[in-house]
Amino acid sequence: MELWRRAANPWNQEVLIGISFDLMWAALIAGVVFVTGHALWVRSLATANGHGDDAPAPPGLPARILRHTFSARAFHWLMAISMFALLVTAFFPWAGIQFPWVTIHWLAGVLLILTVVYHIIHSTFWQDFWSMWVGRDDVETAKREVKRFFGKEQPEGPKAAKYPLDHKMYHHAIVVVTFAAVATGVLMMFRVDTWFWARNPYILSDAMWGVVYVVHGLSGVALISLVIAHIYFAIRPEKWWITMSMFNGFVNRKEYLEHHDPERWAGDGPQGQLPEQT
Amino acid sequence: MAVIRDMIPPCELFQPASIGDALNLLDQYGENSWVLAGGLDSFDWFKDRIKRPEAIVDLGGIEELSGIRADGDGLVIGPMTSLTEVATHPDIVGRFGLLAQAAEHVATPQIRNQGTLGGNLAQDTRCWYYRGGWPCYRAGGNICYASAPKAMNAEHCVFGASRCVAINPSDTAPATIALDAQMVVTNSSGETVYDAEDFFIGPGIDIERMTVMEPGDLLTAIRIPGTWAGADFYFEKIRDRQSWDFSLVTVASAMRTSGGTIQDARISVNGVAPYPMRLDEAERAVIGQAPTDDIGVAAGDIAIRRAQPLRHNAYKLPLMKNLVRRAVRAEV
Amino acid sequence: MTEVEIIRDRGPRNYSRRKFIKGVIAAGATVSASSYLFRGPGVLTAGQARGGVERLMTLTVNGQQRRVDVLPYETLAMTLRYKLGLTGTKLGCDRAECGACTVHIDGVTHYSCSMLTHQVRGREIRTIEGLESPDGELHPVQQAVMDEGGFQCAFCAPGFIMSMAAFVEDNPSASRAQCAQALSGNLCRCGDYNKILDSAERAVELMGQRA
Amino acid sequence: MAEKAIGRDIAPPDLRAKITGRARYAEDFRAEGMLFAKLLLSPMPHCRVRRIDASAALAMEGVVDILTADDPLMPEITGVAAEAALTNEPLYEGEPVLAVAAVDETTAADAIEAIRVDFEPLPFVVDPLDSLRPGGPNARLDGNIQWREGQTREIREFKWTDEDFDAAGPDRLPMGEAQVEWNVGEVDDGFADADLVLEETLLHQSLSHHPMEPRSVMAYWQNGKLYLHTSTQSTARTHAGLANRLGMDQSDVVLVTEYCGGGFGSKISGAPINDVAAIMSRKTGRPVMLRINRYEETYIGRARPGFQSFAKMGFRNDGRVTAIDLYIVQDAGSYGSSGDFNTAGTVASLCYQPEHMRFRAVSVYTNTPPRSAQRAPGGAQIVAMLEPIMDKAARELGIDRLDIRRVNAPGHDGWLGPAQGTMSSCFAREALDLGAEVFGWEERTQLSATRRGTKSIGVGIGISPFVGGSRGMDGLLVIRPDGRLYIHQGIGNLGTHSIADTARAACDVLGMEWDDCEVVWGDTSRNLPWSSSQSGSQTTHAHTRSNHAAALDAKAKLQEIAAGALGGSPDSYDCADGRVFQTANPGRGMTFAEAARRAIDMGGRYSGHELPDDLNPMTVASATNLAGEGLMGVARDNYGGDGSIWSWVMGFAQVEVDVETGQIDLTEYTGVTDCGTVLHPRSLAAQIHGGAVQGFGQARSQKWVFDPQWGVAFAKRLYTARPPGILDVPLRMRWAAVDEPDPQTPVGAKGIGEPPIGAGAAAIASAVADALGGQCLCRTPLTTDVVLAALTGTEQPYRPLETHV
Predict the structure, then answer these.
(1) Where is the domain boundary, B187, B202, B224?
(2) Is the pLDDT of residue A56 over 80?
(3) Do B214 and B237 sit in the same domain of this protein?
(4) Which of B300, D58, D98, D374 has the least C-beta neighbours within 10 A?
């Protein structure tokens, strides 16, 4: 399997021009293998795990706890749309399904950038910025999870705050990959005519462009795998309650207590605490 | 591409006698096969060693691919029919003179003697960056050199660019569009018929091809329906030299006039976009009108309305406009 | 200056002038039509694919049958010039852009640089060497060119004459303008078009006389 | 009495071979065991070879050897900006770096592909103005111009200042310090005197020669001698040059160049690439064919330098030019020291005889293919640029465009150049008048800018002088005992028929039938005399003289032999019809055959055993080889003369420009010449028309395009370079000659190769401007896009000084 595509530039120097088309298939296969593997693994452990839900409910806990505000959901879905548009416009032509994709791709890219910028600002100033970051507790949890995976009995760890560890890890991966895609994508915008500038392929040397294309390509195929994994988890029955919260914003009391530590996260209500009981 | 190699690299040559045999060979060799019609486009690629097929499939021995025969009130032309024959065949000259004129304007007598209608229709672009073997989009790379800020693009497109700004150089292509011709494309899984207009594609759809044909496909017939037989035709090709040169802009039109007004019209141009363009809006603007210079000017203005010239080719706008104008005015 | 390093797989050779002169005495100047242009069977490593063309073929050139070993990717101009010794057919561009290599295939003009020899199997090839009759009588077109003082550098002449011959044989009453159209696939860098057209007109006249 | 050969149409002696395919050009030769060489060319406009890995190529079966610039056998080429056949520092895309020899050409091509060369890119420039900017790139590591001072020549860095560029703005020529400047009078006084002053920014493209025959070469060695088959304009000069380059004795080199498939200045003294075949053959011990293809020919085949210019001209109300101020920035390409810019200044002064003139120029190296002389070097450019300005002046002054040329044209007392030199003769005004009559100037100018449908008619005129001769060459001929005259010509057979036409001077002196004369040329083993360099139209003048001188020598010897045998004084004998006889008693005499036999018996100077002492060594060697074979006539041209020799062509053109499409239809062309005595009407017509056709290409269609970002050429194929075809020229062209002999030369003939091209180019430029209602586009080529943009008021595709487009 080829990893890179190279070509002779007009001076007959060999330059990198991008990743190999094979990597797209590799990413697709990797995603599917992971999903299948995970599904089988989960099945084999069918009842091995599970948090107890016999902890008493705190007084005044409402029936539904707000997990994602409207703006957060709007962000998520806009981002999802742009991501799908980007992936479809990027990879369908590679797979042989031809259509005029360039304009849609860069417009979707612009949308993605806008949503990301919004998300950064929003999460910095209006949300608990650190809620998505891996903290000391998460490290502890991780250690236990790993040990448990290798068959060692472990005590129950602390329950998650708003986001469980796997969400945080996934988010970190997405952050890195999306930033790589966005940074290179912005540079690549100079290679298409937009309403604001005329294209100029010579702002970087062709060797530099090669790196840009490779990074963009790698982040693109990484997104294929990540998105597969994401969708897979979103549709798994035991995660359905989270998925639903991305539609309607709420988790119910049972799920809340089962998965979250009320001390660490009390919902995303207006005051950053549990809404008044009604 | 200054590392000159200039000898055709070793490869195999096949000369099948039937379409079936040809298709089998194309399937067998897949992307490593090359369909050879007249060869005038092909040999350049081979000698420059930019394209290096393993197997050349020469269609010259397939009789059913040559010749011109009547089909109802129209004609079926074999794609391997030479351009000379297309330009001189009495049925084409008499009833579909537009195609004859177009064929007559190709390159030189020797090229017309050997070049085929199918090859002329399916030929690749002449963008000199691409032909120089530069790794541009069309060559599988990720750059268009011809639209860079200082690029030499006087002969590139003013419409239809999508990253790539190359033009379709065929003289006969706009004539087939104006005549409502259909292209029969055959591969091992069967036959598909395309309207001429849909046969040619732009880089937005596939940046590496000029037509719908993919490896394994053969153009097996060009059907000219009777629709425009004996209509009024106009063909003009503008170029710097009166032989050899590819066109800067070409117009091909077919019209029917009665009672001093244009009843129906087809206007097509080439040399301005990555594909031969049918000018539907200009057609609508002239139908029902008298073929006057004013109407011609109006149609020309409509035709160039959405053009986006590059640094060196703004002249193609007045040129295209005037050619449309002349096509309309010729009806007087 | 950067030191240039040349990598070879063999040791550098030592040339003394004496040794060299010894070496070249054998290299004669005898003219030969043998082919060195294309690799022979010994060098061609790739085996012939099934169903591919047979290399050994018979060509009909200027009325003669010539047996010749032709590679699948060999152009007619190369076969004529380097295998059959017919060097009257010139290569000006090798890309169908100048017409110096024009020959007749079944009486029709073609650029021999831009067709494969295998494409003309079984067809009549005529080159500039085949215009003159065996007794030395010039073709009317050649005679016309003699009468009009011919070309300048004449590298393009064989191609022009072949185009002219094909045309006047079919059009014995052609006008000057029609001749120009017929010759528009041949390039003359000396720019001798006026005299070439004078010759063409003269050729039409001579054809008329012969008819 | 034999009819005089001079002035008659004849079939050139090589014609039958040319039209039957028997004429053998360099690539038509084969030798037993012949190898094929192929070149690897630089992919970059300027770079340095760091490393060559040829191991894979040399390991291939059938690959015999490699030749690089470092090969010890390669000749050392010294001198400022000298050009070797192979280089480790290519100065233009396409410059040959190495060659490989293999048993067949396909293997050689495969080997070239298998070679890995590591090139280090270096700064490059394709537009001279970019190189003149402060901090701008230089085409060479040591600078961008060739500085000359006395005998010294060196490469220097030469820059203008930011102020120079700022003052000019983007579309006018900045005029910083000049490399060359000369003045005649005081140009400001001239402008002060003027009633009309015109100023223009002008651009003339560079353009390739594109001879039909690429400079292929075949070489082999036999018994220590190098045999080389190549295409060259001048046999004698190439022979000397090749021996000199290779450090060999001229007698050890046999040059075979019977036919040259076009040169136009690009093959004057042989191509550097000849070294590759010669040395590769020497190295491998086998004959080597180096077939040059069209791409390679465009790269290594030379080109005319382009100009970016400023011209200011002052006129009095009667049209008289009071002053010319000319500034030329020449694109000198990568090698050579092309003097086009200097000649351009000289030609401008000659054409218009300005009362005051200032000439300034800089010649800047660029990383584009090497320049050399191309038919009327400098002359063709300057007339194509200035003639439309003369039209504009005539229009503004309300005088006829022919009259304004006539008012300014020189007579025999005309001057030229900074030294205000003189000419041997000048019939420029007579040629203008004759041209006006033949072309029908008065009637045709009535059609100026009138319309025929969508076509606007334009009528134009272009005057074009150029150097037409040199002096002091050698003539060598032998009357053999078969009674025939063998005229040996060291000149090349470049298609002008001069090998035959100049030989006719000898034929006529001896009163022979042309059919009894034989021309010997094209193979140095056949004993050829020294010749002119066959550039600048020297041949006709130089070699009618040298052959005349040799024939007079032979005639004197014939007279002496006859007088010695038959009595009387030599003066009382004359020659005609192959006999030398007593004038008073024509029956008393002897045949040339008999005289030849006697000459062999007498020996000494009669048979060539004693030679004049002012001959060139090449002539001496050839004459010595021929000694004893008959009666030898051998002499140097010592006729002398004052002033330089100039010929003229006045071009008259009519065009129809389609105002809707910009297409130019050239409907009429007439060329009228002053070239002294007409030697051969039909070949003169061929020169006038053929040169004009090249001029049409120069002014109208031919391209020379580079991508500025990569410095790589695009118009390197004929279909992209667009030299004119047979449909791009008038269906019938006319010509006429003043036919007044030059009084300073015995036959009266001057050369005529150069002037026709400028006449054609200037006439069409003038006619197109006329069709456009007097709009001067001030650039070449006037391609459809440029003309149409002017007609429709659309933005011009190129900026006024934008070059290589």
Answers:
(1) B224
(2) no
(3) no
(4) D58
Structural domain includes residue B88: yes
Please tell me which residue of chain B has the smallest CA distance to A10. B134
Residue A50 has pLDDT above 80, yes or no: no
Q: How far apart are CA B181 and CA B153, in angstroms?
A: 31
Phi-psi group of D265: left, alpha or beta (phi > 0 → left; psi -120 to 50 → alpha; rest → beta): left
Phi, psi angle pair for D127, to nearest 5°: -110, 120
Question: Does residue B299 form part of some domain?
Answer: yes
Residue C179 has a CB neighbour count (10 Å cut-off) of 25
- Can you give the residue range of the structural domain that contains B101? 63-122+167-224
Q: In whole angstroms, give the CA distance from residue B317 to residue D794.
A: 9
pLDDT band at C19 (very low <50, low <70, confident <90, very high): very low
Same domain, B205 and B238: no
CB pairs under 8 A between A and D: 17
Residue B47 lies in a domain: no
**Are B77 and B203 in a shared domain?**
yes
Element (H, E) at D18: helix D15-20
Question: For residue A18, how many C-alpha atoms fall within 13 Å in the half-sphere facing its CB?
Answer: 21
**Chain D closest CA to B285's CA: distance in Å?**
21
What residues of D are in contact with residue B154 (Cβ under 8 Å)? 785, 797, 805
> Cβ(D493)–Cβ(D522) under 8 Å?
yes
State whether B177 and B277 are in the same domain.
Answer: no
Query: How many structural domains is chain B composed of?
Result: 2
**Nearest-CB residue to D690 (from C155, C181, C192):** C192
Helix then strand then coil, % of chain A, to nearest 5: 60, 5, 35
Chain B contact for C57 (CB, 8 A cutoff): no
Chain B contacts to A (CB-CB under 8 A): 1-3, 132-135, 139-145, 147-149, 162-163, 202, 204-206
Q: What distance in Å separates residue B248's CA from the closest CA in chain D?
A: 9
| HEC assignment per residue over B107-174 | CCHHHHHHCEHHHHHHCCCCCHHHHCCCCCHHHCCCCCHHHCCCCCCCCCCCCCCECECCCCCCCHHH
Instruction: Report pLDDT for C26.
Output: 34
Task: Specify whether B300 is located in the same domain as B274.
Answer: yes
- CATH number of the domain that B237 lies in? 3.30.390.50
> pTM for this structure?
0.94
Tell me the per-residue pLDDT of B21-30, one tens digit each, with 9 for 90 and over: 999 999 999 9
Sheet holding D734-737, edge to edge: D451-452, D455-467, D646-658, D664-674, D734-737
Regarding whether B187 and B287 lie in a shared domain, the answer is: no
Residue the block writes with tokens 């452990």: A45
Distance of alpha carbon B5 from alpha carbon C73, whole angstroms: 15
The domain boundary, picked from B183, B200, B224, lies at: B224
Chain A CB within 8 Å of residue D710 CB: yes
pLDDT digit string (tens) for D427-442? 999 999 999 999 999 9
Written as six digits, the tokens of D646 are 């100039």
* B315 and B176 belong to one structural domain: no
Q: What is the CATH number of the domain that holds B188?
A: 3.30.465.10
Query: How many angstroms separate the most distant Cα atoms in chain A?
Result: 75
- In angstroms, the CA D1 to CA D18 distance is 32
B165 vs A193: CA distance, rounded Å: 12
